[in-house]
């Protein structure tokens, strides 16, 4: 059957490029391998030329895949499954790139592009290391290109084809619509891009993150090349700038993801210890450890084996994290992992192809790797660099173990050990934040202190008195600053008891110490030479990150407290992990007190018909006299799925220099009820009462206590000649909460009668004092109460104090790492002088 309207050429070209990349990367891998193992120089050069051509061709093919796929997405060719699944006609052009790497195939393609770019740079810069290093890079490309094939080899499906037609998908082949030649006429639009990905951070965050992933292979490749070729020390000179680059890019990518989560997700912050977050953090920790042990080796000859281990494990954990997030095994424990595309076995093979040879080679040749017999002094820089690296490793192990709970459960089931030993299923921690923080806070504290102390130490040994003299000023300053913050009430987080509060105090000191100590070292130890101060600047940034995390988390305040206890936990889906009392109901156009502010829900954008609903919430802050001193509007938005009764919300924040006000919608009434409420014509109910009488309403009752000749209603502004009285009402709710109302009856200019109402916003209650009936010794009170289907939103609002310290710390840390990269590259180009500084003394080497 000839199908009408299909655009087959871009898909056919794209699939051709995918196959070409697969074959060319295989040729490059084999050729580079042959160039390494051959002893004759002519053969080496011949194989190298073939390998280079193979790698260049696969790089061009990878770019061709990208162009074809983007062309399909840009033109909304919904005959392709990838385009239909990830785009729609109303998708803004700026988010087309987000849709390209929103699925597994596109993210593998992005990773492959970066591998190609880094490989080409290495071909031009790595010199004698090109053959062994590029053997590893080419093998990675071969594995990566296999993920985009989507063809059967020996009965096994290899990869997933991003150019598969919608009618070719297995789940669609029997559908009646695809038995018609003109099936495309029935497909008016695509499924659309996940709304949480429609954010500018998702245009720039994934490319940076995957550059970090890709760059992790370079230190791995150099370390593997050194052991493979038995040049156990030469690789440490060119590897250090690459290792720093990997740390910088992956760290930047991780924190961009944190910024995206802060702006677009509704878990109330920038980090939630989600398994996908953890999976990217672990290799960053181990690579940082490897950088520091490499520095120790280059100056003393110690820790070469540790450096190899850390560089190996960093890329292995990158591959393990890829398996975790793409195999579907985290489907029940992570909110943003990929679903299984049937490539779990292929991902395991990918991981094994790098894990088994590297670990085996490291074990087999462990005795050949140079070591230093002399023990390090406990007052030497290299000793504490190694201790800091071990602390980073412990942090990585704890995170990995808990994140891998679904894997442990799977292994116990597959091996039969669970039934043999009658073991229960391991459950993820009920409170993941505290589970990780109660360990990581102590490790972060140790690291913060070490970043300050180690800078003042010398390699091999440091005179005790000299060290004490140098450390005394930053220690005293940091201790004084810490005590000042504590006694001023700067940190009073008591949710987890006095023990955890003490840990917070220690971490507060450690973060300040890291900042102060490194700043002082820049000006006293380095005499202000910023070109050589990259490490110290990065450590200052690290201290700022720790301080920002501490202040913004430990001082985080929820201001949307439901004092009336009006909200039930049943309003929220279990997976939202919302606490009912930390949410507040905002009836439309009724101000509700919330911390220092009054928040008013003004309306929403449901009339536009957009799937994403924007809610308008006005904030006002008043002084003691009742004058408005600040006013702003926030636009939290949400996608409301009426079929599944689900809400996906995106927060909106008000940014200040010292804090952020963070607002997001947690629940709404069904849209049909909201629309009905827009035409609400509920009337006031009249009650004739005298002091002591009660007036009942659906959520409680109120008692008229007295008639006040000097009313104090905040909405009443007295004028000369006014005759005004207020009805003092005490309101009691079903939950025993107690409130006061005072509507005012006013006669002005001896003729005009006014009724100034008073409202109780959380109960959507409006009360008027409309008449005085002296003959009956009664007054007339009118009560209007919105029913349960009224127009309202339920919202959560938090204050993050000093959150900008965190973001500024990230920038400083990245800047310091970049300065270190430039400094190391210049040292490497310095020839013998630069090399002499990095070669350990011959007498101390074995």
Q: Which residue ranges are poorly predicted, with pLDDT under 50 across at least 5 consecutive positions?
A: 831-846
Q: How many individual β-strands?
A: 23
Structural class: alpha+beta
Main β-sheet description? 6 strands, antiparallel
What's the overall average pLDDT, rounded? 87
Percentage of residues in DSSP E strands: 15-25%
Identify the notable features of this structure and list them briefly.
single chain; 846 residues; alpha+beta; six-stranded antiparallel β-sheet; 22 helices; disordered C terminus
Explain what the structure shows.
The structure is a single chain. 49% of the residues lie in helices and 16% in strands. Strands 5, 6, 7, 8, 9 and 10 form a six-stranded antiparallel sheet that branches. A hairpin with a 3-residue loop joins β11 (652-655) and β12 (659-667).
SSE layout and pairing:
Blueprint: H1 9-37, H2 41-74, H3 81-86, H4 96-100, H5 104-125, H6 130-146, E1 151-153, E2 156-158, H7 201-215, H8 217-228, H9 236-264, H10 275-300, H11 304-326, H12 344-364, H13 381-403, H14 405-415, H15 417-421, H16 432-453, H17 464-487, H18 497-524, H19 534-554, E3 557-558, E4 584-587, E5 592-594, E6 597-604, E7 612-622, E8 628-634, E9 637-641, E10 646-650, E11 652-655, E12 659-667, H20 671-677, E13 685-689, E14 694-697, E15 700-708, E16 723-733, E17 738-741, E18 744-748, E19 752-756, E20 758-760, E21 765-773, E22 778-785, E23 792-801, H21 803-828, H22 832-838
Antiparallel strand pairs: 1-2, 3-23, 4-23, 5-6, 6-7, 7-8, 7-9, 9-10, 11-12, 12-23, 13-22, 14-15, 15-16, 16-17, 16-18, 18-19, 20-21, 21-22
Helix pairs in contact: 1-2, 1-6, 2-5, 5-6, 5-7, 6-8, 7-9, 8-9, 8-11, 9-10, 9-21, 10-11, 10-13, 11-12, 13-16, 16-18, 16-19, 17-18, 18-19, 19-21
């Amino acid at each position: 059957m000839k199908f009408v309207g299909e655009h087959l050429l871009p898909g056919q070209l794209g699939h051709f490029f995918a196959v070409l990349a697969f074959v060319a990367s295989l040729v490059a891998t084999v050729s580079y391998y042959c160039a390494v193992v051959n002893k004759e120089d002519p053969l080496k050069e011949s194989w190298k030329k073939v390998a280079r051509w193979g790698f260049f061709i696969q790089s061009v093919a990878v770019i061709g895949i990208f162009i074809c796929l983007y062309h399909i997405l840009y033109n909304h060719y919904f005959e392709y499954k990838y385009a239909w699944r990830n785009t729609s006609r109303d998708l803004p052009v700026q988010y087309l790139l987000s849709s390209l790497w929103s699925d597994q195939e596109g993210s593998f393609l992005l990773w492959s592009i970066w591998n190609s770019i880094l490989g080409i740079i290495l071909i031009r810069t790595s010199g004698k290391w090109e053959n062994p290093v590029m053997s590893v890079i080419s093998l990675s490309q071969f594995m990566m290109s296999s993920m985009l094939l989507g063809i059967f080899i020996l009965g096994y499906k290899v990869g997933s084809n991003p150019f598969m037609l919608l009618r070719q998908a297995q789940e669609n082949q029997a559908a009646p619509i695809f038995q018609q030649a003109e099936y495309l006429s029935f497909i008016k639009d695509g499924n659309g891009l996940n709304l949480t990905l429609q954010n500018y951070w998702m245009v720039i965050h994934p490319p940076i993150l995957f550059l970090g992933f890709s760059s992790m292979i370079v230190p791995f490749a150099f370390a593997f090349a050194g052991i493979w070729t038995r040049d156990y020390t030469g690789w440490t000179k060119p590897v250090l700038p690459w290792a720093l680059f990997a740390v910088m890019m992956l760290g930047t990518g991780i924190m961009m993801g944190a910024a995206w989560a802060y702006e677009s997700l509704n878990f109330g912050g920038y980090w939630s210890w989600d398994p996908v977050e953890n999976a990217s953090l672990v290799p960053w920790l181990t690579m940082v450890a490897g950088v520091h042990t490499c520095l120790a080796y280059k100056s003393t000859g110690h820790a070469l084996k540790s450096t190899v281990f850390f560089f190996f494990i960093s890329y292995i954990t990158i591959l393990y994290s890829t398996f975790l997030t793409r195999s579907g095994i985290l489907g029940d424990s992570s909110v943003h992992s990929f679903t299984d595309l049937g490539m779990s076995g292929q991902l395991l093979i990918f991981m094994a192809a790098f894990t088994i040879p590297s670990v085996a080679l490291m074990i087999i040749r462990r005795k050949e790797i140079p070591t230093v017999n002399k023990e390090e002094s406990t007052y030497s820089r290299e000793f504490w660099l190694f201790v800091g690296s071990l602390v980073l490793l412990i942090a990585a192990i704890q995170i990995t173990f808990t994140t891998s709970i679904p894997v442990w459960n799977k292994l116990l089931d597959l091996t039969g050990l669970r039934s043999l030993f009658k073991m229960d299923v391991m459950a993820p921690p009920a409170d993941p934040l505290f589970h990780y923080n109660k360990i990581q806070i102590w490790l972060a504290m140790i690291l913060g202190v070490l970043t300050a102390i180690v800078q003042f130490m010398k390699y091999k040994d440091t005179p005790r008195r000299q060290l004490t003299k140098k450390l005394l000023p930053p220690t005293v300053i940091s201790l004084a600053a810490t005590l000042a913050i504590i006694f001023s009430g700067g940190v009073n987080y008591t949710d987890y008891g006095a023990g955890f509060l003490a840990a917070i105090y220690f971490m507060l000191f450690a973060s300040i110490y890291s900042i102060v100590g490194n700043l002082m070292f820049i000006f006293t130890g380095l005499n202000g030479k910023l070109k050589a101060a990259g490490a110290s600047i990065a450590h200052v940034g690290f201290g700022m990150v720790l301080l920002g995390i501490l202040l913004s988390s430990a001082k985080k305040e929820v201001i949307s407290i439901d004092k009336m206890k009006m909200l039930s936990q049943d309003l929220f889906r279990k997976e939202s992990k919302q606490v009912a009392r930390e949410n507040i109901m905002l009836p439309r156009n009724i101000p509700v007190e919330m911390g220092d502010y009054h928040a008013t829900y003004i309306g929403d954008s449901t009339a536009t018909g957009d799937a994403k609903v924007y809610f308008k919430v006005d904030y006002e802050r008043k002084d003691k006299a009742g004058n408005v001193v600040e006013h702003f509007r926030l636009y939290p938005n949400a996608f409301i799925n009426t079929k599944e009764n689900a809400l996906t919300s995106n927060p909106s924040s008000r940014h200040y220099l010292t804090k952020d006000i963070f607002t997001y919608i947690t629940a709404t009434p069904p849209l049909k009820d909201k629309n009905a409420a827009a035409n609400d014509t509920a009337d006031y109910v009249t009650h004739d009462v005298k002091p002591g009488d009660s007036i009942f309403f659906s959520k409680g009752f109120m008692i008229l206590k007295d008639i006040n000749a000097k009313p104090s209603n905040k909405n009443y502004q007295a004028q000369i000649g006014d005759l005004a009285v207020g009805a003092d009402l005490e309101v009691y709710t079903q939950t025993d909460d107690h409130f006061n109302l005072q509507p005012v009856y006013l006669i002005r200019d001896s003729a005009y009668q006014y009724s100034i109402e008073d409202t109780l916003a959380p109960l959507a209650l409006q009360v008027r004092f409309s008449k005085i009936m002296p003959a009956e010794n009664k007054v007339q009170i009118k009560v209007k109460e919105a029913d349960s289907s009224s127009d309202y939103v339920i919202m959560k609002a938090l204050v993050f104090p000093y959150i900008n310290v965190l973001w500024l710390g990230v920038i400083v840390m990245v800047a310091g790492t970049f300065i270190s990269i430039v400094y190391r590259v210049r040292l490497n180009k310095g020839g013998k002088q630069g090399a002499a500084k990095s070669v350990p003394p011959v007498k101390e080497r074995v």
